[in-house]
Automatic annotation (TrEMBL):
It comes from Sedimentitalea xiamensis. This is peptidoglycan glycosyltransferase. The gene is pbpC. The keyword Protease applies. It comes from the Bacteria. Pfam families: BiPBP_C, Transgly, Transpeptidase. Residues 61-222 form the Glycosyl transferase family domain.
């Protein structure tokens, strides 16, 4: 009989066990993957911007290895000391809680495990009713069968409430202590252990006394369990509590908005920006705009021109400014008139085509091109001036003459090669583009100056570390770009700024709507724009007065010392004005488009883009038109003077791409670019 009873008992127990197993296996699990905040980080992994999840919650995805292990140990010991060994429920803890409730006539402690708390958080369920508790037990047992302990703990650290709209350990550590939870003090850990049990009544900013009591209770129990030393717990209990939530990082908000809109599926975006530099530039732009006047906006872009990486991008003085500055408008991408800041490009193209040299004379006097009669900004004329002085003084008439000789279409083509998106006010480009008669963004203008800083080789800007570097097209030769930089480095700096450390140019658009300053040293290029976001004129605003001081200050905040500008390329023609080849001594305002038949010189061989063998160290050239004698230059270096024959051999510059320029005695020119094998 006893044997039969034992057999029946074992059979019924097995049936019950199998029934419980089937009951657990049939549990429908809620989703364990929750939406977490999109994070935008800098080049070093530092936080730039955090976005709320759809329901207005701060919930950042945690990684268990990135959470302070001492906090995890304190949490488990305080909340669920058998967490690593139980199967989802802790019968001993439940019996203890039940016995305390019976003995005291009320609930003194809970019997919920961390897994049961995860079950409640996933379903947002109640703990006060038997049906809710039974559901948590069933779900906890099911979770343990499908997930490992690290995964369960990670879910808790993602969803645990910490007051207000904070969920998860990372949001809590950032809001209450201003740091990631990699390293927490015992006082900080104890508060974060206690908060989730009653996050609203224990908030240190609203209920500091209650928060102190529960924090010290955690410290006392962990000291009693040997988790904390007595002196450590005593010291932690004296630490002041946080009195407010700290704001989440919001650096580079305009750029962050743009990268998130471009890749909405990504939860993390790693940018090329440097958070330290970005914060410094935002403070600088904000202060400059406030000092400049009411309703004025400003923007700044700083780039490492060796790589094209943007290190700082400030779209406005304040993202959410309600003072009329329209801070929500990203002025780094707004299309505005560049004023005189395009002049260096035109001079560089003129150098590259052999039209002029920095020491060439050009006449600054009354001139008209049909109905277009440009004037200098101050209305004065200076007569014959060197090209170097014409650019440094930002004279209008000389640069329009060069634009007319080049052809406005060639200037526009160069802008497009730089990667810029340029807007014309209407129709085909005209000579007014030389004085800012186009629309361009600060981002694209800085990109163009980056090509000048890189020896004429374009580099497309990038803001995401996931984007591969992209080399742009060549705008001009290294000689021409160095000549431009050398001239711009000779501009007088703002009062108190160092001299000849920066090649820079300022600009003021028509009607004083835009004030610009763009400059570069041996490593970085920075552009500054100031004005009103709505395009309203700002009387008396000049790029030299408003933007240039900000430019120099930006370089000072970017680094401790300027990187030296590069030396001249070996092929650079550095001579006094008197020693220039005759066609380069004076610019004559004629070009191939206006010259009569046969007057403009042409290089009829080799054709543009040809691939030629370098025969015995020389290259054959065939000339047509123009008036002798001719000057022939290879890559900016004179290789033949006083040429009168139509067919000549010139020394080979060596393998690779080379540009040959022919200039006749009237200063008219032609050029071809070929590859020599």
């Amino acid at each position: 009989m006893p044997i039969l009873f034992l057999a029946v008992s074992l059979f019924l127990g097995a049936m019950a066990r199998d029934g419980v197993d089937r009951w657990i296996d049939a549990t429908v699990l809620p989703p364990t993957l929750a939406e977490t905040s999109v994070e935008v980080r800098d080049r070093n992994g530092g936080m730039l911007r955090v976005f709320m999840v759809g329901n207005g919650i701060w919930r950042l995805r945690p990684r268990l290895p990135d959470v302070d292990p001492e906090f995890v140990r304190m949490l488990v010991r305080y909340e669920d000391k058998r967490f690593w060994s139980h199967a989802g429920i802790d019968p001993l803890a439940m019996l203890r809680a039940a016995g305390q409730a019976v003995g005291n006539g009320r609930a003194v402690s809970g019997g919920s495990t961390l897994t049961m708390q995860v079950a409640r958080l996933l379903e947002d369920g109640s703990t006060g009713k038997w049906a809710g508790k039974l559901r948590q037990i069933r779900l906890a047992l099911a979770l343990e069968r499908h997930l490992d302990k690290q995964e369960i703990l990670t879910i808790y650290l993602t969803h645990a409430p910490y007051g207000g709209n904070l969920e998860g350990i990372r949001a809590a550590a950032l809001a209450w202590f201003g740091k990631e939870p990699r390293r927490l003090t015992p006082a900080e850990s104890a508060l974060l252990v206690a908060l989730p049990q009653s996050p609203e009544t224990r908030r240190p900013d609203r209920h500091p006394e209650q928060a102190r009591v529960v924090r010290d209770r955690v410290l006392s129990r962990l000291r009693a369990q040997g988790v904390l030393a007595g002196s450590e717990a005593a010291s932690a209990s004296t630490v002041a509590l946080p009195t407010r939530m700290q704001p989440f990082p919001r650096l580079a908000p305009h750029l962050a908005d743009r990268v998130v809109a471009d890749r909405p599926e990504a939860r993390r975006h790693d940018l090329t920006l440097d958070a330290r530099v970005q914060a410094a530039m935002e403070r600088l732009v904000g202060a400059a705009a406030r000092q400049a006047g009411r309703n004025l906006s400003a923007a700044l872009v700083a780039v490492d021109h060796r790589t094209g990486e943007i290190v700082a991008s400030v779209g406005s003085p304040a993202y959410d400014a309600g003072d009329g500055r329209q801070g929500f408008v990203d002025m780094t991408r707004a299309i505005r008139s560049p004023g005189s800041t395009l002049k260096p490009l035109i001079y560089g193209l003129a150098f590259d085509r052999g039209l002029v040299h920095p020491e060439t004379l050009i006449h600054d006097g009354p001139v008209s091109f049909g109905t277009y009669a440009p004037r200098n900004f101050d209305g004065q004329f200076r007569g014959d001036v060197r090209i170097r002085a014409a650019l440094q003084l930002s004279l209008n008439i000389p640069v329009v003459k060069l634009a007319q000789a080049l052809g406005p279409a060639r200037v526009m083509a160069a802008l497009e090669r730089s990667g810029a998106e340029v807007q014309l006010p209407g129709g085909a480009p005209g000579l007014a583009i030389a004085l800012g008669g186009v629309g361009i963004s600060l981002h694209d203008l800085v990109q163009g100056y980056g090509a000048l800083a890189r020896g004429g080789q374009g580099m497309l800007l990038r803001s995401s570390l996931s984007d591969a570097p992209r080399t742009g097209e060549r705008l001009m030769s290294d000689v021409a770009s160095w000549q431009v930089g050398d001239i711009l480095s000779g501009l007088a700096p703002p009062p108190g700024a160092p001299d000849r450390v920066l090649a820079y140019k300022t600009g003021t658009s028509y009607g004083h709507r835009d004030a610009w300053a763009v400059g570069f040293d041996g490593r970085h290029v920075i552009g500054v724009w100031m004005g009103r976001a709505d395009g309203t004129p700002v009387p008396g605003a000049f790029g030299g007065d408003l933007a240039a001081p900000v430019l120099f200050e930006a370089f000072g905040r970017l680094k401790t010392a300027f990187d030296p500008l590069p030396p001249p390329p070996p092929a650079t023609l550095i001579v006094a004005a008197a020693d220039l080849p005759e066609p380069l001594k004076r610019f004559r305002p004629q070009d191939a488009r206006t010259a009569g038949p046969g007057q403009a010189p042409r290089l009829v061989f080799p054709p543009e883009g040809a691939v030629l063998p370098a025969l015995e160290g020389s290259v054959p050239l065939k000339l047509a038109g123009g008036q002798a004698p001719f000057l022939v230059m290879a890559n900016g270096v004179p290789v033949a003077r006083q040429v009168r024959d139509a067919e000549i051999q010139v020394p080979s510059p060596g393998p690779g791409f080379s540009t040959f320029v022919i200039v006749d005695r009237n200063g008219l020119s032609d050029r071809v670019t070929v590859r020599l094998d």
